[in-house]
Structures are given as C-alpha cells and as structure tokens.
Amino acid sequence: MGSTCARIAIDAMGGDHAPGEIVAGALRASEELGVKVLLVGDPQQIKAVMPPKTTLERVEIVPAEEAVAMDEEPLNAVRRKRKASINVAMDLVKNQQADAVFSAGHSGAAMASALLRLGRLPGIDRPAIGTVFPTIMAGKPVLILDVGANVDCRPKFLEQFAVMGSIYSQYVLGMDAPKVGLLNIGEEDTKGNEQALRAHQLLRENSNINFVGNAEGRDVLSGQFDVIVCDGFVGNVLLKFAESLGGVILQILREELPQGLHGQIGTALLKPNLKRIKQRMDHAEHGGALLLGVAGVCFIGHGSSQAPSIFSAIRMAKEAVDNQVLQRLRSQYEILQRDSG
After folding, report:
1. Pairing between strand 7-11 and 36-41?
2. Residue 317: its pLDDT value, please?
3. What is the pLDDT of residues 91-131, one digit of tens each?
4. Helix or strand or coil: residue 297?
5. Residue 146, preceding bond cis, omega within 30 degrees?
6. Which residues are within 8 A (CB) of 19 and not within 5 positions of it... i.e. 6 or more apart?
7. Which residues, in sequence order, are CB contacts of 107 under 8 Å at separation 6+?
8. What is the chain's Cα-based Rg?
9. How many CB atoms lie within 10 A of CB 4?
C-alpha cells in the first residue's frame, strides 16, 4: 500500500515519563514519518514540554481532563473517568478523527477502553496483544501473541490469534505465507497439556494459516517461525524475559570491550556493528505491542517508554494503517463466518 498521512492519537498523559518523553517521540514522528499526531491530555502540561520553535503543522493538542493512574483498577477507572486521556484518544478513533491510537499508560486501561469504545471485530472472542521479537536471522522478526491480554485461553482463542497474527505478519512485517507455531514443551504433536493438544488440532485443521507445528522455548528466536501463539500468562513471562536478556547482552558487550587506548580504537572500529546489534536486540527499537482483535488500530507501549520507543510505536502504527491491517482482518473474518454458515 502507498504511504498515507496517518492520524495517530497519542495518550500524552500515559507512562512513567509522560508527558515529556511521549511528546518528544510524537514530535519526531510527525517530522520524520509525515504523520499527524493528536496529543491527548492536559494542554498546559503538553505545551510546557514542547520546544519553543515547535512546528504545529502536523500536531494537534486534544484536551483531556483526567488520566488513569498505574495503580488504579483499569475497568473501574475507565468507566468512572469518562474524560480520561485514554478514553478521549479512543473516541478519536471511534469517531474516525484518528486512524490509530497509542498509549504507554496503564495497559489494562488501554485494553478496557478499546473494548468499551471500539468493541471487538466480528468473529473474535478475545483480543490479543502481539509483540515483535528479533531473531537470529537479520530482518526476520517473529510475532508473539498473546503477551498479556488473556491469562487463560481456550484453544479456539489461540486459533483466532494465529489467524490475526498471520495477517499482520504478512501485510506489515512482509512475511510470505507466515509460518505459525504453537508454543509448547516439545515439538511432537502429542506433547503438552489438554489445551495445547486441542489447540494443535485446531491449528492443523485451519486452512487459512500455514501451521508448521509446535515451537519450543529454544525455537522462539530461531527464525524458524514467523508467528507463535500462546496464552497471555506464558507470553508475558516470555516477553519480560526476552527484554531483560537483550539488556543483559548489551551490558556484557559494554563491560567486556577492551579498556584504554586500544579499547577506544577498537570500539570506534566496531561502532557501526554495535549500533546494529543494539537495533536488533533493544526492545525500544520495536516500540509497542499491537492489540489485535478490536475494531481499531491500537498500540500499547511499556510504562517506561521513552522518546525512541514512542517514535518506533508510532512508526508501527503508521505501517498498520498504511497496510490496512484492520480492513484485512475484518474481511478475513467475514469470509470465515460466511463459509462456516
């Protein structure tokens, strides 16, 4: 698809470093990606962190009276604070004033707001949070879902995750006939608990996906799979482990590089390589996680997200809009429901 001037609604009050880092990442995206960013939150706080000579050609501030705190119960907070920044941002998508929404605030509140205001896509029982991991094969990421939206999953939920993940992997990540795997304790068809066995059967029988079998933990970053499905409990543990692993390896590299003059020369020579290593391993480079299954393009970021992560998340949101992921998901499930009927 051709590039569009995507309109991205940003929850400027969500996250540990809001609104400063949120605004900084959003302004960079408006300049480098050509997107229009709608910064939702307290106008005074937002303006206070903007550089004096900010160009507002593709930037709009949308007032919101409140924000959902990280320690609040998400569903109650979203219902009680109707004018919270995350709700106002979701309403912009609902009313077609924005094409996508991003929040680094309370992930539970973002999901609750998306469900209440946008609703689920027809044919989807549970939305899933999907995130992109790097693999040992350069330029070949793997999409993992669910990484936190559903702690417990029925086998049919995992089947739906696989279909949604395949569409995203194909049209946004550029994977031809994405290879789908089921995260399990063994590669044999007979391995796993009752949920895994039933999910394996459903995935194998689904002609709309390229299911290649079970994926063990060691396979996640191998590049053998393009999409891996699991329940949100396991997926969230995997996500947090992978994020920490990247940081550990980068820290080891810094500590083990030679010191002194020889070290400075060696580091200078290796600088391009080290930069590429960071880009492949640092979760900040991948921005946010996509909430698949709701009737809108929604990205959720880490609470600790800073400007580079915000920029990356907005880039991913733009790519999802440009490649019409929502329309493709809707069309696919309309076909599936018609065929099953």
Report:
1. parallel
2. 93
3. 999 999 999 999 999 888 999 999 999 999 988 999 999 99
4. strand
5. yes
6. 12, 13, 39, 41, 42, 45, 46, 49
7. 129, 148, 300, 303
8. 20
9. 13
